[in-house]
Amino acid sequence: MAMVYLTRRETFCASHRLHNPELSDEENRDIFGKCNHIHGHGHNYVVEVTVSGSIDPRTGMVMNLVDLKHLIHESIMAPMDHKNLDLDVEEFRDEGRISTTENLSIVIWERIQRLMGSVLSSSSVRLFEVKIWETEKNIVVYRG
Ligand SMILES: Nc1nc2c(c(=O)[nH]1)N=C([C@H](O)[C@H](O)COP(=O)(O)OP(=O)(O)OP(=O)(O)O)CN2
Ligand SMILES: [Zn+2]
């Protein structure tokens, strides 16, 4: 059966600060530089979510892109767009994860994976990749 990859891209704006509370202020400044500025800074994040699967002969689709749009809305856009990642997203606020793009890609993966599990339990569709552009130059890919 042919494996096909389906991607949807969204953009969201969020602020954050790179800071490890277990380190001293000086160590934080040394490691994170300007990204440790106490009042934070913002990004226009671009995120691509790719799923893989075989084409359902009944629909001609791997997965309905409208369903993928809803998954992305619920797991990324609603909780993160125009938010402060460190204060508004529980994985960063409560679990001590530093809001690097690496960690953000894992948080997004986990959220989508959880939702896909409940929405697509009987389907062959799998989450394949989360790709985030923090800036035009800084890009992170996570494949689970
Ligand atoms: N491994 C990581 N390193 C850094 C991350 C990250 O998520 N993972 N994030 C940052 C900052 O959030 C920062 O906003 C990006 O820094 P920087 O590349 O300096 O920002 P610019 O793209 O604006 O850089 P210019 O070279 O000035 O264009 C830092 N490191
Ligand atoms: Zn940043």
Structural notes for this entry:
By secondary structure, this protein is an alpha+beta fold. It has a single domain (4-142), classed as 2-Layer Sandwich (Tetrahydropterin Synthase, Chain A), CATH 3.30.479.10. The protein has helices at residues 25-32, 65-80, 85-88, 90-93, 101-119, and strands at residues 4-16, 41-53, 83-84, 126-133, 139-142. It has a five-stranded mixed beta sheet with strand order 3-1-2-4-5. A hairpin with a 5-residue loop joins strand 4 (126-133) and strand 5. Helix 2 packs across helix 5 (101-119). The longest helix has 19 residues, at 101-119. 22% of the residues are buried. The mean pLDDT is 95. Bound molecules: the ligand Nc1nc2c(c(=O)[nH]1)N=C([C@H](O)[C@H](O)COP(=O)(O)OP(=O)(O)OP(=O)(O)O)CN2 and zinc ion (ZN). Keywords: Lyase, Metal-binding, Tetrahydrobiopterin biosynthesis, Zinc. Belongs to the PTPS family. One of its GO terms (cellular component) is mitochondrion. Its EC number is 4.2.3.12. Its cofactor is Zn(2+).
Quick gist of this model?
By secondary structure, the protein is of the alpha+beta class. It is 35% helix and 28% strand. The protein contains five helices and five strands; from the N terminus they run E-H-E-H-E-H-H-H-E-E.
Termini Cα gap: 23 Å
User: Would you list the SSEs in sequence order as H and E?
Assistant: EHEHEHHHEE
Low-pLDDT ranges: none
Can you tell me the overall shape?
elongated
The level of helicity is 25-40%
What is the CATH T-level topology? Tetrahydropterin Synthase, Chain A
Which structural class do the helices and strands define?
alpha+beta
In this entry the ligands are: ligand LPXRUNBV, zinc ion
Highest-level CATH class: Alpha Beta
Average pLDDT taken over every residue: 95
Number of helices: 5
